[in-house]
Amino acid sequence: MAKRTLPQDGRGAPDSIFSLLPPGAAGSRTVRQIAVDRIAPHPRQPRSVADEQSLDELKSSINEHGVVQPILLRETGEAGRYEVVAGERRWRAVVALGLPLIPALVEELSDEQALEISVIENLQREDLSPLDEAAIFARMTTELGYSIRRLAERLGKDKGYVENRLRLVAAPADVRALVATRSDTISHAYELMKIDDPARRRELADQVARGDLPLARLKAIVRGESLRDEPRARVVAPPEPARAATAAPGRVSYAAPGAPGEQVPPPAATGLDETSDLALGASRTQVADAIEGLAALLHEIDQPQAGRALSAVDRENMAKWLQIARNKLDNLAAILRQKGE
To answer: Does the annotation mark 121 as catalytic?
Structure first.
């Protein structure tokens, strides 16, 4: 079995392999050519779905250039047998190509160390699906005892990002199916999880899957349904206009229609009636949707790959328009506060 010794600083193999190894791990730190039929996949492989297209691309690369980065193995306890710790896709590609050997590092690792290296190596991949990522995060918090904060720091992720991914673990089946089909709907999925009615949620998920329901509109629908489900305060109808009013010292009394001269107390302040309340809510939603829609459109147009970036003149004009709109909103807010004092 051929061996190729590497310097201890890692020259000759990618640094990422050595960065995954725990300090002081026993091992020869040599790259060896191992027979592929003596290797088994990791029994607790974090990835649930193999991307056939990316595997085909990897096979083409290996066929042309060979295996550039060695895989990481550990012995199984049976003489001359190994299991993959990191690099299972490379091993599968080599097997599919019918190659007899694969370059590998062999290390003595505990079950916990092997699992941690396996999940970290998978998390470093760009093609990892949100559902796989969620499952990996869950395993690291349950099986490896990571706190969410420690996990976020270990991965260089925001704590909120980790928390959101973990929400997918317990997501309803229709939401998980949507994300599995279209990973670009992850933000839609978080909104759909706020809907308790399964039939309604499936209906909206189908619209998202077809591309008929943009995120801004979905957020507006979710907000509207949440408000609809909240218990409303009892709304007292405003009194009918009085036909006549009589003045008494220190008191104003109202005469109700159809009962001339009958004294009734003045109406209590009830705030907005239901119609006005709904109209204000709809207006707020329209403004919020318009702002989110404009932001999404500007972001989409201004991407380099879009091929239609805004010109300097368009940028300046849009900036001026947004400033004017902001001034109007600031004035409205100032008026509301002033009248409320």
So the answer is: no
Tokens of 181: 């089909």
- pLDDT tens digit sequence for 204-251: 999 999 999 999 999 999 888 765 554 444 444 444 444 334 444 444
Q: Which of 52, 78, 88, 225 is catalytic?
A: 88
Residues 152, 161 contacting (CB under 8 angstroms):
yes
Whether the CB-CB separation of 193 and 175 falls below 8 Å is answered with: yes
For 154, 210, 312, 316, 319, the CA distances from 323, given in Å and listed in that order, are: 41, 36, 17, 11, 6
What is the C-alpha to C-alpha distance for residues 225 and 62, in angstroms, rounded to an integer? 53
Contact 337, 330 (CB under 8 A): no
Spatial distance between the Cα atoms of 284 and 275, rounded to a whole number of angstroms: 14
Query: How does pLDDT run across 145-194, given as a tens digit for each residue?
Result: 889 998 888 878 889 999 999 999 999 999 999 999 888 899 999 999 99
